[in-house]
Amino acid sequence: MTATAHPRRAGRLAPVAAAVLVAAALAGCNRGAPSDDKTETAGNALDDSVITTKVKASLVAQTDGKGGSTSVETRHGNVLLSGFVDSQAQADKEVQLARGVDGVKSVDNKLMVKDGRSTAGNQLDDSVVTVKVKSALMTDDRTRTDQISVNTDKGVVQLSGYVGSADEQAHAAEVARNVEGVRSVVNDTTLKK
């Protein structure tokens, strides 16, 4: 007799399982001499991409999907978690799960606990604000949007990611503040080391 998974659960876990398998297959890449923190090689980027994928898969699989909205960025094995969560307990669990992933050297917790429940209208408004902020950052010559994540909860915009300079960090926050619908900006970007 063979065991079968519940169809709904199997459908949700199939993409997670596929991501974990791909990440595991790629995990052996670039295991030569360690690079210094100021250089970014293709191998480092690939290793960081694999770690990011593994962390995301773990968060989705072990938090009943709640961790799917958490932004995960990795640089030289150092993981940055950001976004809005329902409770401090959820944030603590996500940090613990990220620390348990092979290859993770450290976890920088920038998760923010939501201020009460969001309505469908809040969520739609926040989605629009997020898109507007990303668009403003993308069209600005002084920001690198591929390195900045944007999360919004009730008009509060959180910027996170790794940036090259304090000037870029400050400018990104200023660009976000000038977007219609933004109540405030939390700049959780981190300078590259």
Q: What assembly state would you assign to the polypeptide chains in this entry?
A: single chain
Q: How many DSSP-defined strands?
A: 6
Radius of gyration: 18 Å
Estimate what percentage of residues fall within beta strands: 15-25%
Walkthrough of the structure:
The protein is of the alpha/beta class and 193 residues long. The chain is built from five helices and six strands, in the order ααββαβαββαβ. It folds into two domains: 7-113, no CATH class; 120-191, Histidine-containing Protein, Chain: A. Helices cover 44% and strands 22% of the residues. Strands 1-2-3 form a three-stranded mixed β-sheet. Strands 4-5-6 form a three-stranded mixed β-sheet. The longest helix has 21 residues, at 42-62. The radius of gyration is 18 Å and the shape is globular.
What characteristics describe this protein?
22% strand, 2 domains, alpha/beta, globular, three-stranded mixed β-sheet, Histidine-containing Protein, Chain: A, 193 residues
Give the arrangement of secondary structure elements.
Layout: H1 7-26, H2 42-62, E1 71-75, E2 78-85, H3 88-99, E3 106-113, H4 120-139, E4 148-153, E5 156-163, H5 166-177, E6 184-191
Short synopsis of the structure:
The protein has 193 residues and is of the alpha/beta class. It folds into two domains: 7-113, no CATH class; 120-191, Histidine-containing Protein, Chain: A. It has five helices and six strands; from the N terminus they run H-H-E-E-H-E-H-E-E-H-E.
